[in-house]
Amino acid sequence: MQVIDYFSEIQSLIRSSIFVENVDVEYEVKSRSIGIVHGILGMLDGSTLQFMELIDIKRDKMIRLKYRFHLANVNDEMVFRYDNAPIIRRSLLIRTINM
């Protein structure tokens, strides 16, 4: 599998979804094995899914190096968010800001 194969799978899934109304997705091929896909999907109920994946394909196995999925309702209120960003403890963040 190469990056373009994974991107084709995503496009096919989006096209076949009965819930997606609007699509704004960009695909960036960095090499045969590394790529970025990001965009916003508008759903029939007015909610939106913003997403980003930085992927690396090694030996036909897809690895998500970075990812972010953010679902907001029709009022732009967060429903859920998943990502693999490092967690910063609140006390560390406060000390950094106060320096």
Walk me through what this model shows.
With 99 residues, this protein is an alpha+beta fold. The protein has one domain (3-98). It has helices spanning 3-16, 90-98, and strands at 20-29, 34-43, 48-58, 61-72, 78-83. The chain has a five-stranded antiparallel sheet, with helices on one face. A hairpin with a 4-residue loop joins strand 1 (20-29) and strand 2. The longest helix is centred in the N-terminal third of the chain and has 14 residues, at 3-16. The radius of gyration is 17 Å and the shape is flat. The model has no long low-confidence stretch (mean pLDDT 89).
Task: Summarize the topology.
Layout: H1 3-16, E1 20-29, E2 34-43, E3 48-58, E4 61-72, E5 78-83, H2 90-98
Antiparallel strand pairs: 1-2, 2-3, 3-4, 4-5
